[in-house]
Every structure is written in C-alpha cells, then in structure tokens.
C-alpha cells in the first residue's frame, strides 16, 4: 500500500505546480479534503478528473471494502489554474469535473497513455501534459496570495500595495484561483494554523492569535466551517500539504 506522498515538480513547472502526488487508500477508506486554494488534475481509479478549489470540507467516500483506491495527481498553485486550464477557475469551484469537459482534445489520448503507464509514468505524463500548456501563473494573484498569507493582512491594504482596486483584484483572483481574496485569506490563515507546532504555542488561544484570528472563538468558527471538525479534533492529525 502506497501512502500519500508528494514529489517536487520538474524545474520547468515550479512556477505553476506545487507538487506531484500519489496516494493509495485502504479499501473502504474515507478521506477528508480541506480547502487549500489549489486545483488538482488527477487520475482516480482510471478516471481523469479536475478538482476545483474547495470552499469547504469534502469527505470522499471509500471504495468497495475489497478494492483499494489509487490516485495520481498534479496540484496547481493558487493563481495558476485559470491559465493552465484555459477557463475561469470559478467555473469549477467546489466541483469535480471530468477532464474531457475541459480539455476534450487532450483527455482521451492522455487517459489511454495513463492506463498503460506505471505509477511513476503516470506522474510524468501529467507533468508533461501541463508543461505543454506553456501557462504562466497570474503574477498579481500570486503576489496577493503571499500577502494575504501574512497575519493581519487586509484586502484593501493588499490591493493598495499592488496598485490595483479591490474590484480588480477580486476579478483576477476569481478567474485565476476560483474564488475571491477574502476566501483565499481565510484559507491562508487556516494553513498558518496548521503550520504552528504545539511546542510553539501551548494553548489554542495562543495558536489562534499567532495564526491571525481575532479570537479563539473566531478560530473555532472558521475551523468548523472550513474543515467540518472542531479545532482540537482537526489539529490532532492535520498536516500541511504543498500549495
């Protein structure tokens, strides 16, 4: 059984790809997926799917109790999805869409090639397919994502620092990520919370303040909305994935 693992993308894809990844879940396993600002292209049990940016938790149902679920994927960085896919990323927000609906000229041949490849070959095929798109990450959105990830960041301040209006920043972010700066900031704050080790902040209140929440109650509400779990339960085994 292959556990979830991430691999660095080829150098030519670093600006738009966070990682290549693969996972083989035990039979009947359920997986909780939380928002990370990313869009993934993946092969799940033989099907090619585009997973849009999520605004809430998704619990994937496990497959038949006797059959493991195998997935190979490539994760696009926040701000890269619109350019790579060739459509506004908002069109697939909170959706799982067959790749054939997005890339009808590419998906059939890619699916056949993936079927014939071993796990390492599948990741290479996904990477080369994205590389051929010659897409560039939206620089404005990438810069906004970095700034929104800082404690105390405000959308008005980020837009001002970048020399654009809030309306313009919102439009560009929705097209490139799938949702607006406010949601992107909420996701960034959750990722900061995950990154804090228990040894650095000894209480939930400390961790909430360090991550940038207004209060522990604010943090608890946000964690429940984004993960479907209490902070204590969520942080027990939360790990920071590449994004």
What report would you give on this structure?
With 243 residues, the protein is an alpha+beta fold. Helices cover 42% and strands 16% of the residues. It has a six-stranded antiparallel β-sheet with strand order 1-2-7-4-5-8. A two-stranded antiparallel sheet has the order 3-6. A hairpin with a 2-residue loop joins strand 4 and strand 5.
Structural class: alpha+beta
Major sheet strand order: 1-2-7-4-5-8
Radius of gyration from CA coordinates: 18 Å
- End-to-end separation in angstroms reads 25 Å
Largest sheet: 6 strands, antiparallel
**Residue windows where pLDDT falls under 50 for at least 5 positions:** none
How many E strands? 8
Short description:
By secondary structure, this protein is of the alpha+beta class. The chain has helices at 81-85, 99-102, 107-116, 119-131, 139-148, 155-162, 166-176, 181-195, 204-211, 216-227, 231-237, and strands at residues 5-7, 17-25, 31-33, 39-44, 47-51, 58-60, 69-76, 96-98. A hairpin with a 2-residue loop joins strand 4 and strand 5.
What descriptors fit this protein?
243 residues; 42% helix; alpha+beta; single chain
Topology:
Elements lengths: L4 E3 L9 E9 L5 E3 L5 E6 L2 E5 L6 E3 L8 E8 L4 H5 L10 E3 H4 L4 H10 L2 H13 L7 H10 L6 H8 L3 H11 L4 H15 L8 H8 L4 H12 L3 H7 L6
Antiparallel strand pairs: 1-2, 2-7, 3-6, 4-5, 4-7, 5-8
């Amino acid at each position: 059984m292959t556990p979830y693992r991430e691999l660095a993308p080829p150098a030519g894809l670093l600006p738009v790809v966070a990682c290549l990844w693969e996972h083989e879940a035990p039979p009947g396993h359920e997986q909780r997926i939380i928002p990370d600002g990313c869009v993934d292209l993946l092969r799940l049990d033989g099907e090619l799917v585009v997973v849009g940016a999520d605004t809430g938790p998704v619990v994937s149902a496990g497959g038949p109790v006797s059959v493991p679920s195998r997935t190979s994927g490539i994760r696009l960085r926040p701000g890269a999805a619109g350019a790579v896919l060739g459509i506004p990323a908002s069109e697939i927000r909170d959706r799982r869409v067959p790749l054939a609906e997005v890339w009808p000229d590419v998906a059939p041949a890619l699916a056949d090639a993936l079927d014939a490849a071993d796990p390492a070959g599948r990741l290479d095929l996904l990477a080369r397919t994205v590389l051929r798109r010659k897409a560039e990450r939206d620089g404005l959105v990438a810069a906004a994502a970095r700034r929104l990830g800082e404690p105390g960041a405000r959308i008005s301040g980020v837009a001002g620092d970048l020399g654009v209006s809030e309306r313009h920043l919102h439009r560009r972010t929705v097209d490139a990520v799938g949702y607006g700066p406010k949601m992107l900031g909420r996701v960034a704050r959750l990722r900061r919370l995950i990154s804090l080790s228990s040894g650095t902040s000894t209480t939930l209140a400390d961790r909430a303040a360090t991550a940038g929440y207004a209060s522990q109650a604010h943090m608890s509400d946000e964690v429940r909305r984004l993960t479907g779990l209490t902070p204590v339960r969520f942080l027990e085994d939360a790990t920071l994935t590449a994004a």
